[in-house]
Specification:
Layout: E1 3-6, E2 11-12, E3 23-25, E4 30-35, H1 42-48, H2 57-65, E5 82-88, E6 96-106, E7 109-114, H3 127-130, E8 134-139, E9 145-149, E10 152-155, E11 159-165, E12 182-184, E13 195-199, E14 205-213, E15 230-239, E16 248-250, E17 263-270, H4 273-292, H5 296-306, E18 308-313, E19 320-327
Parallel strand pairs: 1-4, 3-5
Antiparallel strand pairs: 2-5, 4-15, 5-14, 6-13, 6-15, 7-8, 9-10, 11-12, 11-14, 13-16, 17-19, 18-19
GO molecular function: hydrolase activity, acting on carbon-nitrogen (but not peptide) bonds, in linear amides
InterPro entries: FmdA_AmdA (IPR004304)
Protein name: Formamidase
């Protein structure tokens, strides 16, 4: 089957069924999408201008060399930079688009940020400790892992944070909220070897993707994973007799040995799931600071990159339980 490649010149920043397709493909074809990071290259430009410090001169050079010249669009709605749309011939509302993730290629560097009063789980209460915000820069050139600080190493498991098709409702739609047609789901299991099933709402489906992450914990706790640009290879096909109401995913085995060394778990209990999650994360940040000497900012962005939030129970009213799990294998 043919393979089609889409470059950064096809980037758009909204979901909109009226967008002209960047390419038209047949079911069974493969598409290769070159993607920008979630900041539309702005983080790299700020490093180049000296606004964001990078501890390693070598990594600083790598980041500056990656600077993408075109600026993000101004005015109107602006969201994640997405590559596409891909029109799949024969796709019609009511069908299911089958998206096989064949490869997710990481870039040479990535970043994780925490911003006071941003979208992270504890941003508001940590505002005083985050100052004007914190960004950690990761060297991804090893391909399989990246060192966070001396003695802390994360395995990489890259995936697209945003992968979806156009909503049926007319007009432009923000990319931030996930929808029944996919989008900004941030599901870390969407790695190479997985298959995503998406309900189609418009003719041709109009698939787009972006916001690649080199790694992320379940929850994306500070609001970012290890954000990166990269390349995504997908094979697209259709199911006509298999209607679904929301995205479904067939996952491969865990791609790394991240959880084979056990975990340290902090549980949170509250009548509200979000508050239970906050309690669990607070306790885990305290553990990282006490046991490993991390700063609040370091503990927060590390948690976003590797800590999993899990619902342990939602039946024992009036309190629900959320657990935060820290993989111990990251400590060398």
């Amino acid at each position: 089957m043919p393979t089609f490649q889409l470059g950064r010149n096809t980037v758009h920043t909204v979901w909109d069924a009226s967008l002209a397709p960047a390419v038209r493909v047949e079911p069974g074809d493969t598409v290769v999408l070159d993607t920008l990071d979630a900041s539309y290259g702005e983080v790299a430009r700020r490093v180049e201008r000296g606004e964001y410090p990078v501890a390693s001169p070598d990594l600083h050079r790598v980041i500056v060399q990656s600077v993408y010249a075109p600026q993000p669009p101004t005015g109107g709605q602006r969201g994640h930079p997405l590559t596409g749309p891909v029109f799949v011939e024969g796709a019609r509302p009511g069908d299911t688009l089958v998206v096989e993730v064949l490869a997710v290629e990481a870039a040479s560097w990535g970043w994780t940020g925490a911003q006071p009063n941003g979208i992270g789980l504890l941003d508001a209460e940590l505002a005083g400790e985050l100052g004007n915000g914190y960004r950690h820069f990761w060297d991804l050139r090893a391909g399989t892992h990246s060192d966070f600080l001396p003695g802390i190493r994360l395995p990489l498991a890259p995936f697209p944070g945003v992968l979806g098709v156009a909503p049926g409702a007319p007009g432009p739609h923000l990319t931030s909220p996930p929808r029944r047609v996919g989008g900004n789901m941030d599901i870390r299991q969407l790695v190479a070897g997985s298959t995503l099933y998406l309900p189609v709402e418009v003719p041709g489906a109009l698939l787009s993707a972006g916001d690649l992450h080199a790694a992320q914990g379940d929850g994306e706790l500070s609001g970012t994973g290890i954000e990166m640009e990269g390349r995504l290879t997908l094979r697209l096909s259709l199911k006509r007799d298999w209607a679904i109401d929301s995205p479904q995913l067939l996952t491969p085995p865990e791609p790394t040995a991240l959880w084979q060394g056990g975990s340290y778990l902090v549980s949170g209990h509250a009548p509200d799931l979000m508050e239970a999650a906050r309690i669990a994360l607070r306790g885990l940040l305290d553990h990282l600071k006490r046991e490993y000497g991390l700063s609040t900012a370091h503990a927060y962005v590390l948690s976003s990159a590797c800590v999993d939030l899990r619902i342990s129970q939602i039946v024992d009213a009036p309190n629900w339980t959320v657990s935060a799990l820290l993989p111990l294998s990251i400590f060398l």
